[in-house]
Amino acid sequence: MSNHWYDKAVYYQMYPPGIIGASKENPTQITDIPPDQDPSKGFLELDLRVSHSKESGCSALYIGPLFESSFHGYDTRDYKLMDKRLGTNDDFVNFVKLCHKAGIRAVADGILNHTRRKLFAFQDIPQKKDYLTNRQYAFACHGEIP
Length: 146
Description:
It is a single chain. The chain is of the alpha/beta class. The chain has 2 domains: 5-112, Transcription Regulator spoIIAA; 115-146, no CATH class. Helix content is 27%, strand content 15%. It contains 5 helices and 5 strands; from the N terminus they run αβααβββαβα. The strands form 2 sheets. Strands 1-2-5 form a 3-stranded parallel beta sheet. Helix 3 packs parallel to helix 4 (89-101). The longest helix is centred in the N-terminal third of the chain and has 14 residues, at 42-55. The relative contact order is 0.17. The mean pLDDT is 78.
């Protein structure tokens, strides 16, 4: 039997965009976010779930997607930024500190195997016409080349 904390943990999974009621589409600019969706409240809403998770017997939160994306969170736009609908990188750091203070581990789901068509790596594919032989990505073209 393993003595690792993650093997013994009781996890609670969080889907942040759903929990906070984020808009389906993520605007490009922070100023384009609808007024009823104040991004500074995203992680504050998740903060409220920490004590509930602890009271429910959970010892770890599995949370994701978190990174900046254009849609539902699984089409990452920037792996270095928190999704602006949730808040800032500092807001996330504070969320993790709150989890640790409550004795809960925070496990971030990076969604590293999903990208978006507008990712920099896709931009030259239409010109090179090698999308069928490119082995870096598997393409599912539904009527148009990415």
